[in-house]
Amino acid sequence: MTTTTTRPAPARALLPWLTTLARLVLGGVWIVAGAAKVGDLDASVRAVRAYRLLPEPAVQVVGAALPMVEIALGVLLVVGLGVRVGAVLSALLMAAFVVGIASAWARGLRIDCGCFGSGGELAAGEDPAYGWELARDGALLLVALALVRWPRGPLALDTRLAR
């Protein structure tokens, strides 16, 4: 005799709406982060350079491209198109941010992460907020991973196109 485990009815009914909320939150964060940087690509490049992880040609490309990538990911997640792919890319990008911030902290760098604009070296007397930044990005990484597992939800183009 085999038994199957199913989620209780309330959990089954709630999961699609939690997926939608997760998609909108993560997508909104990407749009806000990208929009904060897209108007000043020089600042975005400075923020990437401050981590001292990439060679200068890569710094230029990543710093200039990152805001557009963030906005594109955000729009795809908000409208619900390619949610699983967007979630995988979001998880990879968030993991890279976590590694970058942890690396800056471990190496004693005093920088602003540049997550929502500006970035770069901190002024004298300013302290980095690495703990908060790691907690925030770690939580968003978990949201992205949840969307990889449960990408479908109401109010998403993917759901409508799959019918």
What order do the helices and strands follow?
A: HHHHEEHH
Strand pairing plus helix content: what structural class? mainly alpha
Number of domains: 1
- Intertermini distance: 35 Å
Q: Please count the helical segments.
A: 6
Q: How do the strands of the widest beta sheet line up side by side? A: 1-2
Write down the Rg. 18 Å
Please mark out the parts with pLDDT under 50 across 5 or more consecutive residues, or reply none.
none
Mean pLDDT: 90
Number of strands: 2
Q: Largest beta sheet, briefly?
A: 2 strands, antiparallel
Q: How much strand? A: under 5%
General description of the model:
This protein has helices spanning 9-38, 41-50, 56-79, 83-106, 130-149, 157-161, and strands at 111-112, 120-121. Helix 1 crosses helix 3 (56-79), helix 2 packs across helix 3 (56-79) and helix 4 runs antiparallel to helix 5. The mean pLDDT is 90. It contains six helices and two strands; from the N terminus they run ααααββαα. The chain has one domain. It is mainly α and 163 residues long. Strands 1-2 form a two-stranded antiparallel sheet.
